[in-house]
Amino acid sequence: MLRREWPTLAIVAGGGLVAALAPSAAPFVLAGTVLALGAWLLVRHEDAPPRPAAGLPVSAGPDSAPRISARDLAAAVPYPLVIFEETSAIAYANDAAQEAFGPLQDGMSLLLKFRAPEMQELIGALTAGQVADGAVEYGERFPVESAYRVTGGAIGAGNRLFFLLFKDQSETRRIDRMRSDFIANASHELRTPLASISGFLETLRGPARNDPAARERFLSIMQEQTARMSRLIDDLLSLSRLEMRSHARPAGTVDLRQLLESVADTLAPLSGDLGVVVERDFPEDALLVQGDRDELFQVFANLLENACKYGQSGGRVVVSMSKAGEPPEACVTVRDFGPGIAEEHIPRLTERFYRINAESSRAQKGTGLGLAIVKHILTRHHGRLAIRSTVGEGAAFSVWLPLK
Ligand SMILES: Nc1ncnc2c1ncn2[C@@H]1O[C@H](COP(=O)(O)OP(=O)(O)OP(=O)(O)O)[C@@H](O)[C@H]1O
Ligand SMILES: [Mg+2]
After folding, report:
1. Fold of 8-168
2. What is the topology classification, in CATH, of domain 171-244?
3. CATH number of 248-404
4. What separation in Å is there between the alpha carbon of 371 and the centre of ligand 1?
5. 84, 158, 173, 254: which sits with the fewest CB atoms below 10 Å from its CB?
6. 12-23 pLDDT, tens per residue?
7. What is the pLDDT of residues 31-40, one digit of tens each?
8. pTM value?
9. DSSP 163-211
10. What average pLDDT score do residues 32-56 get?
11. Residue ranges of the domains in the chain?
């Protein structure tokens, strides 16, 4: 029979318990603990005659605590939470549960609703009075793919009410997937040059042992491949350093004009080799921004290098700088007149290892990490990157930075 009479819960010193849990404890644990402990302190109004709280420490008993109903408490929990009876009939499902698994009417059987064997086992164990053994992983495919960690427990002793609490794991799964993709990509990028070096070593020890011309050629390829591996490792280390410092805004002052001049000068040999003319369109006044000179150098060097490498066919690149927007910000645009970038690639360009054409990027000695590094550096500088392109007409990469 469905119990309609809701027990009253008393929580020691209001939020005292909540505050005592370290922030690292997942809210899930927190909500479950509050609920379970609240239930443990379950008192009925008539069973708990008021006693004077004077002289007692706040945590000494439930008397000084506010009383709230289990339904109110469950309704306030921001994660899907279902309260059910010994028969597995739902007694209450909060809004988050309705949204995730609904409709869940009172009286509906949880065993019929959650048919996955692990859920059946968990519900069965709880209603049989066993202590739930850790959390259960539960996934749904429809309407959207989702993954939850489910824990449950009894509410109080002898109430024959139980709860299930679901913690959404989709974000954690997404991050895990990203991490393993990243490791797979990084390993693949390192394995390719390594395989080539080991192949050449074998040839040098075997068939090419007495061929000085071949030896020279192979050694120079091996040198290129080791340079590529070391570039990749430098970029990976650079990314990981930036990630560790992502919230600390650099304190220095950078004169953007001076910086851009020196970037263009440094890349002059490359643009010259590629036959690209780099035009500078800078205002008279200096534009000062707050930042780390080396990191901002890396940003503009990558944008200019990309413009020269991938926009080579346009024959020219324009680097312009201006003060724009409200409030005014510094805006630096690197524009090329090459093949441009199709719309579907634009949002993905700052992903690690994302390349429109991996072969052409590798041929240009690219690691595919440049724009990921740019994005991290700009985030740290409270700046942003905007990419515009028309296929066939070229691409424009604009960096916005707050003025000093
Ligand atoms: N100006 C551009 N025109 C066309 N495609 C571009 C342009 N800039 C970047 N891209 C594309 O974006 C991809 C990612 O650029 P990113 O700078 O992150 O890597 P990369 O240049 O390949 O390697 P790295 O910068 O590490 O040397 C490039 O491989 C290229 O496909
Ligand atoms: Mg690049």
Report:
1. Beta-Lactamase (3.30.450)
2. Helix Hairpins (1.10.287)
3. 3.30.565.10
4. 7
5. 158
6. 333 333 333 333
7. 444 444 344 3
8. 0.70
9. EEEEEE-HHHHHHHHHHHHHHHHHHHHHHHHHHHHHHHHHHHHTTTTT-
10. 36
11. 8-168, 171-244, 248-404
